[in-house]
Design a protein that fits this description.
There is one protein chain. The strands form four sheets. A six-stranded mixed beta sheet has the order 4-3-2-1-13-14. A six-stranded mixed beta sheet has the order 5-6-7-10-12-11, with no helix packed on it. Strands 15-16-17 form a three-stranded parallel beta sheet. It has three domains: 239 residues, Purple Acid Phosphatase, chain A, domain 2; 70 residues; 110 residues, no CATH class. It has 435 residues and is of the alpha/beta class. The longest helix is centred in the first third of the chain and has 21 residues. Helices cover 28% and strands 20% of the residues.
């Protein structure tokens, strides 16, 4: 029998709500997965992408990841992983660094044998690159084969790429696809093109207020002596993680009701150290978010987010929280149907952590590279007005739910983090700087 933990979307380094406590929460959740793996004495930990929240993790985030990987290594539990869209770099990946240190294995076309299971990997693939993708998976001699990948796949909701196309195009018959990117845990068995299990493990911490389910991971068991259909020998069970409490308060106001009714509902809950998410609908009087936030803070809440859906419905049918203007900007950029090159420029100018003084040279350098490499496809507008590559990051909630409140970190160009070599204890570093 072979037992593996299937996890992913750990998003290390995400300082959600601009709170250092939330940044530590994401690392703590990853630590708990590793602790469970050691306690359960599993055969491997399989990570389905987005280990980091950003392609430029800070040194503390890198050191935190290393500490967890060393814990697994000390227990002789291999860490097998693919690269997700949030952390993907155009050159060497952070996962390659961890592999060079003997603490991880980057999965790919060659099988990695774990017990009786051959494990393969497929990193996040941008939509423009999928049509020409070659499935060069090498053969194996194991009882089972599992594919680990990162992306939003059909037949699951929000999918933009049918995983059945991948399975049909592969020379290797897969009995399970262990997936990441969708933060909603879900499992499904398919019979076409062949019998296989498809499963998303979900994220280990809530990267968005839209993620109400408990966080966790999958324990996947491959039984000895598989039956005629190996998928019958695969057992997938969800394990919960004890993460910071999110308290969701949904208030439907009646005529004449207002802020006092909202405060009453909020303070009925246990709020100590919790993230409080308040949604207001119905009729009633205007509600000042600060008044609600003050009441929750007095009750011990870590932070409170208030969304009044009545305000959003006044002008147009758009689901955007005014507490999160960055998501409104990202949504508008997605609607513009920009080319991949244009989206790179937008990300560099608006959202990246490139210092102000380096923005112009960085944009010029990247455009020059694309021209010299004859990457003409990078300058073609996206089809259907949708962004198509990894730089979309699909908001902070990769589940792709419409109207999700993606709580992205606001980057103030006037307070850009220090470049490598400049003063600052939490500076962004490149892989070359680290090495």
């Amino acid at each position: 029998m072979t037992r593996v933990i299937h996890t992913g979307d750990t998003h290390l380094g995400y300082q959600q709500y601009h709170l250092p406590q939330r940044r530590e929460d994401f690392l703590d959740a990853f630590r708990r997965v590793a602790a469970d793996a050691v306690e359960e004495e599993v055969d491997a930990v399989v990570h389905a992408g987005d280990l980091f929240h950003d392609r430029r993790p800070t040194l503390p985030d890198i050191m935190g990841a290393l500490s967890v990987l060393r814990e697994l290594d000390g227990a002789d539990i291999p860490f097998l992983a693919v690269v997700g869209n949030h952390e993907s770099k155009r050159d060497a990946q952070w996962l390659d660094l961890f592999e060079s240190l003997g603490l991880a294995t980057r999965l790919g076309d060659e099988p990695v044998t774990v017990g009786d299971v051959a494990v393969y990997g497929l990193d996040f693939v941008a939509r423009a690159e999928r049509e020409d993708l070659d499935y060069d998976f090498s053969s194996h001699g194991c009882d089972y084969a599992a594919l680990v990948s990162h992306g939003l796949f059909q037949p699951f909701e929000h999918g933009d790429w049918d995983i059945r196309e991948v399975l049909a195009g592969s020379p290797v018959r897969f009995d399970a696809a262990l997936l990441g990117d969708d933060h909603t845990p879900q499992t499904r068995r398919i019979e076409d093109p062949h019998d296989a299990w498809l499963t998303y493990c979900g994220s280990t911490e809530r990267a968005s207020a839209d993620e109400r389910e408990n966080r966790g991971y999958n324990l996947v068991v491959f039984e000895d002596d598989p039956p005629d259909s190996p998928a019958d020998g695969v057992d997938i069970r969800r394990r919960a993680l004890d993460t910071r409490d999110f308290v969701f308060v949904d208030v439907e106001l009646g005529p004449g009701e207002g802020v006092e009714r909202v405060r009453e509902r909020v303070t009925q809950e246990e709020l100590t150290d919790a993230v409080v998410v308040v949604s207001i609908a119905g009729e009633g009087e205007p509600v000042t978010p600060a008044t609600v936030e003050e009441a929750a803070a007095e009750a011990g809440a870590l932070t409170t987010r208030v969304t009044d859906h009545r305000e959003l419905a006044d002008e147009r049918d758009v689901e955007v929280s005014f507490a999160d203007p960055d998501e409104a900007v990202r949504e508008r950029v997605r609607e513009l149907g920009l080319s991949p090159a244009a989206r790179e420029v937008d990300e560099t100018v608006r959202a990246s952590k490139v210092a102000d003084s380096n923005v112009a040279s960085e944009v010029e350098r990247r455009v020059r590279e694309l021209v010299e490499d004859d990457e003409t496809g990078a300058f073609r507008p996206a089809e259907g007005g949708e962004a198509e590559d990894a730089e979309d990051a699909q908001g902070e909630n990769s589940a792709g739910s419409e109207g999700a409140e993606a709580d992205a970190e606001v980057v103030d160009p006037g307070r850009a983090e220090a470049e490598p070599g400049e003063e600052g204890t939490d500076s962004q570093v490149t892989m070359e700087d680290y090495l």
